[in-house]
Structure formats: C-alpha cells, structure tokens
Backbone:
C-alpha cells in the first residue's frame, strides 16, 4: 500500500479504477508571420468557435450541475468579449507580427499573473479561468476537439488540475471521485465535487508514473488521502468505512427532513427562499418542507425581453416538478428603477425604492401580471400546492386588483381546460408599514401574508440599507419593526389567515425564538440554514418564547432587544 | 467628465457575478469609462473589461472611483451607481 495525503475538499469514500486525465498541449512558441491579416482572421474565427463551444457547455452545465455553477461559462464568454484582452492579442499579432497562439498565450498569462498577485484567494483562482479560456482558444486555433473525455467505466479521476471546461466534459455518472495535484479548497475541482456530492481531494503530491490506468485506488475525501496498491484486506476495510460514511450522511439528512416541532408540540413550517431549479433541489436535500419565496426576477433579467407565457411556464414547471406536493410560494415580479431592464420602460428615478416598482407596475401593465399568473397556474400539476403573492403592497386597492387578476387568470385557464392544479392560494408580502397597519382590511382579499423583513425594516426606519453611513440604523430588531411584525401576525390570525416570514431574520438563530413566540406559522430562509433552524426549534418551548416576545416588544431600542435575546440563548 | 467615488458593500466585492454585471452595464454606454480601486491605490483600468476590473481586486468595504467621459456619460454614471447601490440587484 502506498498513500498520498492532500487537502480534503469533499467528503466521502470512493473505491474504484483510476483514470488519468492528460490534456493535449498546443505549442505557444513565438513564430514570426508575414501578413498579419489572415492571422487576425484565423484568431477571430477561433474566437467565434470558442464562443459557440461555451454556449453549448453552458447549456450542458445548466442541466447537469445547475445555474449557479453554469454561470462560470457565462463569465468565460465575457472574457472572449473583453476589449482589453482581445485588443492586446490583436495588437500583438499586428504590431509584433507574431502567431496567434503566442499572442493568446502571452496575453492570457499576463492577466493570470496579475490575478495571482492579488491577496484574496478568490481573485487568485480567476487566474485558472483565464488559462482555461486561453487553452480553449488555442484548441480552436488548431481544430482540436475537446471530445477526449470519454470514460468507459465509472472512475476516480486523477489530474494535474481540473478547469471548469475539463470537468463539465465528464459524464456525471462516470465520476466516482476527483484527485488533483494542484488547487485549493476554493478551486473548481472542489466546488464541482461538492455540487456533484462525490469525494475529492486536491494538492495531493502524487506522481503520475506510479499509477496504472484502470488499477484500483481508494480516495478518502474526509482525510484527503489517496491510496494505491492496497491489499484485499485494505480494500475490504475501506468498503466498510464507505458504508459507515453512508449511514452517517443519511442520518444527518434524515433529521433535517423531519418536521420542526417545539418541545411543547407546536409545529411550524420550515421552507426555503430560492431563485431557480437548482436551488429547489438543494432545498429539498436540506430538508425544506416547501418554498416560502421563489424569486422570479431572473426570468425577466435573463431573457432581455418580456418572457412569453410558454417560456415562463416551462421554467416554473421544472421547479414545481422538483417540489412535488410541497407548497411553493411564488413572488410575482419584484423589480424597479434600481435595475437595468431596458424593455420594461424603467426610468432612472431619484428614489427607486419609493418608485414605480413591483406590484405598482400593475396599473399600467395588468397584462404582465396576468401572463405571469397564467404561466404559474398552467405550470402547476394536480399535486402542486401553488401560492402566489404580490410584493410591495401598500393599499387595499392594489390587493383588490391583484386578486382580480389572479381570479381572471384561473377562470381563463379553466375555460381553456388548462388548469390542472387543485390547491391554490393568493397572498401578499408585508414589507411596507402601511400594509402592516391595515392587515385586518387586506385580509379580506388574501389567503396568507408573508413578511419581508429586509424591506419592512428599511421602510419603517427610513433608511436606505445600501447606504453605509446610515445602514447601522436598519435592524429588524428595532422595536418598531417588531411591533409591525407582531401586529401583522395577530391581526392575520384573528381573520384566520396564516403568516410567513421570508427575510434574513427567519434564518437568524437569535430571532427564531422571538418569532416563534409571536406565533409565526412559516419560516422561509436560505436552504443551508434549514437544518440548524429546525434543530433550534425542536429545543424551544413556545410558552417561554411568548414571554420573550412580550418582553422584547416592550424594549425601547435595538440594543435593548438584542441584549434581551442574547440573554435567552 | 463625470466622476464618483463609491463604497462597494457587496459581500464578495467586485468579482464573480457583481463584476460581470458591472462590466455589462458599463458596456452599454458609448462613453469611455474608467475605474480604479482607491482603497488599494492601484492603477486605473477600462470599466468595460472584465479582466481589467478583476485585476483591481475590489473587496467588500473598498471604495472605487468611476470616471465616465463622452457621450451619455451622465446616464452611464447613474446606471453604475444604481447597480452598486442596489447591491447588484440582490435586494430581497
């Protein structure tokens, strides 16, 4: 047995044949050229080819590893359109009369070195992205296909280093584990391994010459060790360890998927804030009982034009399928003058947070909300539990109109025989004090409320939370904000409506007992916060929480509330 | 010419998505737009170049200076300021 120890980056144990990845190298030596014009043309063609490849990789990544990780290929496309990068290559070809390969490699390396000189690890890691893009252009210049990653059996991949374009080429089911000689905990290898949930270790000091392709190796992603030439007994004990590991992992996830019930038996709903289908998968994995906030802005920002009913339906359907019969609360378009959306006729406003945004667009463009609501209703299946909510509500009239559009959307689909969903609810976000103060009237038109504490805080204390000089004033623990939350929950319950909360506060361990004491029904947070919050709720007694809430509501200041809550922990 | 000093409050600073959004926004305007990191007192670079912007190494809490010069310089500045003020569109 021989063992190499590197840095563990993704847990688990893999046992299987190794596969050594050897990228093709392209000569980047300087060669003088005569007429630069054909060389420039050759370079430009390579750029176009590279762009097409990245487009394909992006789509493939979207399917296999999700939107967040696919974004890297979007970034690479930006590099291909970078005026400084492309300009420098072109002038090297034209002025220095050198071949495109040398011009690309030297320019890219220049930028890579600048990145490596920066302090932050994240910036340093971008050096690899530039080299990756550079290699892609070099391959395109030489007509080399990237189609050399065909694994014949599931394997543990050994490589010098892996770039995003390397890793995406591998078929997901063929990857048992990843080992690289270079790279750190924030490298792409590490990120990818975690998102694929396969064991991985990086910076392992092994020599390729010691490995025979296809021979059995053991990778332990928790200790960062790679073992070769293991005896039968050693492989057997690794297999036992692998089973142990599986059991522990399953039990961790299992407790996250169990309900959040307090010591005295009160059950609350723990759901996730998400922005796409990949988040939805992660949410389910971390034990979310549903979605408390699905942001839909990305649809409007990504398309560059108004997405059609069919386009929206297709994307929503994908998310609803992941969530199955779990409830999904969808927030309708929440966008305004602080964002660049050319086609929406958003004008630069001097006070965008107080301006023409979110539900306020409905007066001029009711058809936009109708299309979105129809898409959502159409995308939902008979088992779905769809809850649509309108953001930025300040008055009864807005809720009346939005509710009417919701009913029209349902009725029109019914008529067209296109309404399959059986459970639907309509609600609004409570993020403006004027709404919180007339909950009893708004309740006439809604099935539920969801409190957006980030905005509710900003509007209550009159603080632009992006303005550093005043941001310290904006805390959801301000007694005035707490009173609005408390009032919203009480008045809604009096009218038989349920209340959720989808700001950062819902996932804050300090705030959880307080909100539980106020009687909040649903807590919506980022997926990764769910296991801890569930754990916390299971240790609470709601009667004690009520006392804490009562006491917090009588405090004079943010500081006093925070001190009170700190004493309870 | 328009000039403005802005504090970057986004937790990841000016890289990843924020950097991409920044460069894309700058790229929409015809004028020359330059940016430098006042906190590290480094070089001034083309705001339309993602690689150049990344080499500034702007982290949370750093202040950047944006200078726009030429056609639509006012619009460009407003758009970039708005982008940073909205925390790159991530307000919940």
Residues:
């Amino acid at each position: 047995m021989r063992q190499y120890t590197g840095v563990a980056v993704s847990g688990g144990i893999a046992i299987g044949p190794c596969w050594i990845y050897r990228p093709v190298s392209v000569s980047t030596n300087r060669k003088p050229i005569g007429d630069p014009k054909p060389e420039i043309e050759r370079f430009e063609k390579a750029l176009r080819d590279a762009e097409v490849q990245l487009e394909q990789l992006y789509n493939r990544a979207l399917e296999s590893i999700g939107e967040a990780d696919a974004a890297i290929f979007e970034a690479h496309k930006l590099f291909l359109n970078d005026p400084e990068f492309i300009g420098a290559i072109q002038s090297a070809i034209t002025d220095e009369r050198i071949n495109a390969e040398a011009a690309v490699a030297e320019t890219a390396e220049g930028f890579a070195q600048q990145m490596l000189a920066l302090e932050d690890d994240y910036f340093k890691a971008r050096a690899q992205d530039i080299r990756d893009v550079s290699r892609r252009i070099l391959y395109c210049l030489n007509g080399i296909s990237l189609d050399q990653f065909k694994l014949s059996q599931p394997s543990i991949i050994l490589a010098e280093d892996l770039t995003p374009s390397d890793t995406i080429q591998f078929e997901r089911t063929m990857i048992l584990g990843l080992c690289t000689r270079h790279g750190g905990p924030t490298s792409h290898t590490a990120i990818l391994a975690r998102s694929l949930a396969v064991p991985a270790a990086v910076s392992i000091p092994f020599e390729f010459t010691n490995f025979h392709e296809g021979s059995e190796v053991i990778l332990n992603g928790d200790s960062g060790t790679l073992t070769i030439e293991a005896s039968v007994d050693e492989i057997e004990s690794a297999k036992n360890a692998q089973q142990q590991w599986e059991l522990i992992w399953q039990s961790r996830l299992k407790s996250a998927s169990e309900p959040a019930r307090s010591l005295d038996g009160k059950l609350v709903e723990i759901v996730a804030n998400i922005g796409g289908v990949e988040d939805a998968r992660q949410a389910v994995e971390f034990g979310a009982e549903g979605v408390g906030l699905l942001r839909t802005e990305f649809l409007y920002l990504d398309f560059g034009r108004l997405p059609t009913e069919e386009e929206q339906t297709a994307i929503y359907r994908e998310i609803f399928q992941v969530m199955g019969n779990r409830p999904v609360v969808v927030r309708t378009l929440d966008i305004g003058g602080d964002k660049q959306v050319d086609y929406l006729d958003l004008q630069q406003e001097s006070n965008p947070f107080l301006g023409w945004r979110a539900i306020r667009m409905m007066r001029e463009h009711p058809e936009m909300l109708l299309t979105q609501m129809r898409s959502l209703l159409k995308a939902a299946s008979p088992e779905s539990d769809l809850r649509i909510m309108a953001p930025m509500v300040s008055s009864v009239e807005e809720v009346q109109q939005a509710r009417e559009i919701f009913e029209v959307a349902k009725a029109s689909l019914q008529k067209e025989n296109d309404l399959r969903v059986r459970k639907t609810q309509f609600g609004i976000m409570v993020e403006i004090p004027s709404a919180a103060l007339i909950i009893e009237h708004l309740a006439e038109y809604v099935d539920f409320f969801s409190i957006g504490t980030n905005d509710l805080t900003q509007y209550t204390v009159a603080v632009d939370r992006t303005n550093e000089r005043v941001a310290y004033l904006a805390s959801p623990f301000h007694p005035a904000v707490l009173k609005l939350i408390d009032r919203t929950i009480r008045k809604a319950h009096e009218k038989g409506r349920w209340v959720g909360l989808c700001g950062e506060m819902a996932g804050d361990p300090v705030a959880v007992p307080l909100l539980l004491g106020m009687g909040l029904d649903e807590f919506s947070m980022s997926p990764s916060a769910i296991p801890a919050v569930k754990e916390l709720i299971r240790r609470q007694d709601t009667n004690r929480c009520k006392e804490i809430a009562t006491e917090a509501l009588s405090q004079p200041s943010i500081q006093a509330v925070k001190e009170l809550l700190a004493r309870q922990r | 010419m328009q000039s403005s000093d802005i504090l970057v409050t986004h937790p990841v600073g000016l890289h990843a998505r924020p950097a991409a959004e920044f460069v894309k926004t700058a790229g929409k305007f015809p004028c020359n737009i330059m940016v430098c990191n006042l906190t590290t007192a480094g070089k001034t670079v083309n705001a339309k170049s993602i690689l150049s912007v990344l080499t500034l190494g702007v982290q949370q809490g750093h202040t950047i200076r944006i200078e726009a010069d030429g056609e639509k310089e006012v619009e460009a500045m407003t758009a970039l300021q708005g982008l940073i003020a909205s925390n790159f569109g991530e307000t919940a």
In short: The helical segments of chain B are 16-26, 50-55, 73-85. Chain B is about 35% helix and 25% strand. The longest strand of chain B covers residues 63-69.
